[in-house]
Amino acid sequence: MNSAHKPAALILALALSLGLAACGGNSTSSSLSAPAAPAEPATLVYGSGDYTSINPIMNEHCEIRDLLFDGLMARDGAGNLLPALAESYTYDEAAMTYTFRLREDVQWHDGEPFTANDVKFTIEAIMDPDNGSENAPNYEEIREINVLNEYEVAFVLSEPNVAFLDYMTMSILPEHLLRGEDMWESDFFKAPIGTGPYKLENWDVGQAITLVKNKDYFAGAANIDTIIFKIVTDDNAKALQLLSGELDLAQVAPKDVAAFEGRDGFTVYDMSTSDYRGILYNFQNEYWQENADLIPAISCAIDKQAILDAVVLGYGEVAYSPIQRNVYNYDEVEKYEYNPEKAAQIMTDAGCTRDADGYWTRNGERIGFVLSATPGDQVRIDMAQIAAQQLQQFGLDVTADVPAEGIDWDGQDACIIGWGSPFDADDHTYKVFGSGKGANYSGYSNPLVDQYLTQARQTFDPQQRAEAYKNFQIELAKKPAYTFLCYIDALYVGDSSIQGIDPDTVLGHHGVGIFRNVCDWTVNS
């Protein structure tokens, strides 16, 4: 969270006196001691989803990026910001300028030096509208990026952005390898070169991505020599391969957890997340422009606790807000709890009536839609099917669909969506619900929501931010963009030989974040 940050002219941020916490511990021994036998190289095999590219500035739901790349800033286990590629920073409140002093001991994996030009190149690439990055709204206040020298860069803002330092955790890319390249299609994203604690050694497409530790990592070399991202897209296969020893660590489906709880040789990590699921309504579709007033009824007609229990076996909690697990959550907001009677009253008040078969109609047409789910995501598929069944029972003509070609964002009726950030409340709200913003895939537009999100983004005062986010949540509930269903825990199973995983880290969307302190991990033989 960034609420503790207080701007003042030229306040020097607290830089780590020893730099970013070292990745690997350094041990010393007496000169009289016998030399230790060389340790066997340590390897960890992780059960991963598939990758078609590794592009951290376009796809933020990318677990592997944190092993290959670094940002100017990083976060500790409590979510506090600290310098990473930056050595320190200053903020001039009057000039609305952040100036970063960069580390001079950082090299790209190809041996080239990291400089301020790489920072400017990366952020400008995100901001370039031709590149279509959903992350562009995070940086829209930037008016100028000035490279002062090789190791100093200044960002001049047109308006305050309280989350600016949070967004400086974005992975920095090498200008010397990407200048003039297509930021979606470049071959670089299939053979990425970063500054991170691990380097890409081999990519066997559809099978495995092999990373080896960066022995020259500026924060100290990691303990584990090799990490293999083995591509295992089927949940059942992940569980079986954990049991057989083919995998050392994987995120598993709730139904598979019981096989590992209390079992010798395995550790189960039930990790809290900010990751929610909901129903996105496509307001680019004329249907919802005409029937948006019925969304509160739909929300009341869905038994969210039943979905939580059936799909993820209770690992999580019923959702009602996109910042429910944030310090700025407003608990008194309308939650649209399961209440079929209230749902029916909303329908009646809107002029809807039931036909001879019990279906709700408006202007002689049955009210209904197709609820889509992403192929290959069983949790979303199950949620869509159960929600459609519940809405059918209520009298809405809703069917679930899993389009083989994936979600058609412009042409769909509605779909199961997921978002959520464990960091500043601006993340996954401003760009998701703000009119015309990069991650607003629903086409939702509400001037009051825009106003409150902007207010919260532009003030460093925690009380003023709390009031703005309270008003945002109230307005979003009045005119919903989504039906919020549930927050879901991330369930990981690891071989008990793995030490150092932080079980208290609050993870992000898709359970991303477990590798935050990977340099500290060890594998005991």
Task: Summarize this entry quickly.
With about 525 residues, this protein is α+β, with helices and mostly antiparallel strands.
What features would you describe in this structure?
With 525 residues, this protein is an alpha+beta fold. Helix content is 23%, strand content 22%. The protein is built from 14 helices and 25 strands. It has helices spanning 65-68, 116-127, 164-167, 175-178, 235-244, 254-257, 286-291, 295-300, 304-312, 340-349, 378-394, 430-433, 447-458, 462-478; strands at residues 11-12, 43-48, 73-75, 81-83, 86-92, 97-102, 142-149, 152-157, 198-204, 208-213, 226-231, 249-251, 266-271, 276-281, 316-318, 353-354, 360-362, 365-366, 368-372, 397-401, 414-419, 482-488, 490-495, 498-499, 522-523. The strands form six sheets. The chain has a seven-stranded mixed β-sheet with strand order 9-10-11-2-12-23-13, covered by helices on one side. A six-stranded mixed β-sheet has the order 15-22-14-21-19-20. Strands 1-5-6-8-7 form a five-stranded antiparallel β-sheet, with helices on one face. Strand 5 (86-92) and strand 6 form a beta hairpin. The two termini are 38 Å apart. Residues 1-22 and 24-37 have low confidence and may be disordered.
